[in-house]
Structure formats: structure tokens, C-alpha cells
Here is the input.
Amino acid sequence: MANAKLVLVRHGLSVYNDQNRFTGWKDVDLNQQGRDEAKEAVNLLMDYNFDIAFTSDLIRAKNTLSIILEGIDQDIPVIENMALNERDYGDLIG
Here is the structure.
């Protein structure tokens, strides 16, 4: 375990970013730039071998992870947890 590493990746831009809207807990998908950002992350992560992945339960985070895992050709356990969701911006969302 001496060589263990923690890699943190933020999800890419969402469709709400296109509209200059607060996202928070609103479950919106990635926009094209967000999908492209996830594909760029693949190049940075190609040399890593992961044991497990954690993601929030929001679609933009899950899709970012999915693009990355497919790109690096790794099929590993994925744990979703809402504790990893973004902040709840209340009435500002949307």
C-alpha cells in the first residue's frame, strides 16, 4: 500500500454552464465541452491502474467517470454516494 495514490477528478462542464445557471443538486448532463474534458483526462490517467472509483450520484459526475474508465479501458467497482454531490444552492439552482 506504500504506492497508493488518490486521484481526484472534477466533472466536466454541464448544460447549465452553457446557460450560466447554478447547478448544485440539479441533475443535468455534461455539455460537449464537458465530454471533451473527460476525454482529455483519459490522456492524463492512462498510466494509472485503479482498484475502485467513487462518484456522486449526479449524471454529470457519473458520465465523466464513465468516459474516463472506458477511455483507459478499466472495468472496476464504482461506488456512488450523494455525499460527493456539489453543494445545494437552494433557490439559486436553475
Q: What stands out?
A: Residues 5 and 50 are 9 Å apart (CA to CA). The longest strand covers residues 53-55. Residues 32-45 form the longest helix (14 residues). DSSP finds three helices and two strands in the chain.
